[in-house]
Specification:
The chain contains 9 helices and 10 strands. It has helices at 13-25, 97-100, 102-119, 135-149, 188-204, 209-212, 220-250, 266-278, 283-290; strands spanning 3-5, 28-36, 39-51, 58-64, 69-74, 79-83, 124-129, 155-159, 179-182, 255-257. Helix 3 packs across helix 5.
Amino acid sequence: MARLTGDGGLLTPLVVSDIVHGLIRFGNSYHLLRAGDGGLFFDRAQCVGINGSPRSWRYQLDIAGPDTSEQLTATPDDVLHVRQHAPLRRPWEGRSSLDEAASTGTLARALEHGLGHEAAVGVGRILTHPTGMDDKTFDRIAGQIAATLDAPRRIGLVETTRQGHGVGASSAPAKDLVPERLGPEPMPATVSLFAQVYRAVMMLHGIPPAIAHLDGTQTGQALREGVRILKTHTLMALARLIEQEASRLLRRRVVIDLDLLDTPDVSHRAMALSRLVVSGMSIADAREAVGL
């Protein structure tokens, strides 16, 4: 959904996706500009340290391979280093959005960890049986249940108990041979909080609610507005970061054009243009207002 010019084919979809992934997870992405048989290419790298003064940084890079890894030192003239939220005192070190909102990330991890433990609980059923059942009858019923369900370890038989109900057995509820399920049962409040935190994390990364929480209730207009907000507030800023660093490294202007994202909204923007012109606005001003 984007057109790139000036990059000489170096910013492939894989490289761009690596950059976005690195910014989301760590606030940094590192790619070493290398020469191969097919010409120049970007090789993804892990940075283990940056040394030197601001004018002469030295990147300590680790490039992983299937059998071994390569450690080398590179200068800024060879490294595509895209970063975000870099502190004033540490301009060489970007930070992820979750680093900037650490408590939100901690809460999200704790909730996901807890729900994961809850979901890992074994599933089964407890079937109460009448008091006084002899062993032969018990074994026969247990065998029939296991054969029917083909899951001998997922159901258990226990003798019904009637103590503790009002005045005794006469007031006990009829529970004989009524199965009760055992398994994951997360608290509704936990599930609700996890959904809220999920939406907060998505918004923290610039994903509008209309796109982050698709539940079938969004209208076409809401989705189009979500895409517009995603482009203007998030993707364009991200594109400028990549353009700036790529232009510096390649010593030529690199442009990332996101206009293809406007295609689904062209008809509605044209209608808005028409209304503005009818209301008395000049065509030039109206086109600028709606972005056409």
